[in-house]
Amino acid sequence: MSKRRRSADTGNQLIGVVAIIAVAIFVVGVIIIFAKSLFSGVEADVPKGLDTATVANAAAQTEAVQSDDSKEQTEETKKTKKTKKTEATEEKKGLGTKTVQEYAYLRKDPSPEGEQVICMSPGIVVTVLSKEDENGYVQASFDYNGTLLEGWVHSSYLA
């Protein structure tokens, strides 16, 4: 084979490698642009009226933060909360209680599109107020720092 032929083959190989690199850079660029446009709807600001706080076991949190000086005042607060809770429970006799097993949203309506009231943490005990509907939702209520919240939660999150 002549030197000219070998030189042409080497040049063709080099052109092929450069072409592959150029295509790879183009594909990566397209993926980045696509990803930016795909996730551009994710806003840093939370819509007004949406409570994004996660509810945990309020009693455990309260006891961990209290000092000895506030224990007497806390006992009175607990009695008041228990009275309110008892009144609310008597007013809304449910079908029993269930425990949230995974993070779950309490919603205003019994559907995945229903407005989210609050996100409940595992371990929260809720009072079930209705039987499961055709979509798998039950009406439930629970005490959130002295306020009785009521809404709908999918039964698959409760046990």
Characteristic terms for this protein:
159 residues, alpha+beta, four-stranded antiparallel beta sheet, three-stranded mixed beta sheet, 41% helix, rod-shaped
Detailed description of the structure:
The structure is a single chain. With 159 residues, the chain is of the alpha+beta class. Helix content is 41%, strand content 21%. The protein contains three helices and seven strands. The strands form two sheets. It has a four-stranded antiparallel beta sheet with strand order 2-5-6-7, with no helix packed on it. A three-stranded mixed beta sheet has the order 1-4-3, with no helix packed on it. The longest helix has 36 residues, at 3-38. It is rod-shaped. The N and C termini lie far apart (80 Å). Residues 57-69 and 85-91 have low confidence and may be disordered.
Distance between the termini: 80 Å
Task: Categorize the overall geometry.
Answer: rod-shaped
The secondary structure category is alpha+beta
Query: What order do the SSEs take from the amino end to the carboxyl end, as H and E?
Result: HEHHEEEEEE
Mind telling me the C-alpha Rg?
30 Å
Pick out the low-confidence regions: 57-69, 85-91
What spatial order of strands do you see in the largest sheet? Answer: 2-5-6-7
**Biggest sheet, in brief?**
4 strands, antiparallel
Mean of pLDDT: 75
Q: Estimate the helix proportion, in percent.
A: 40-55%
Number of strands: 7
Bin the strand percentage. Answer: 15-25%
Q: What's the tally of helices?
A: 3
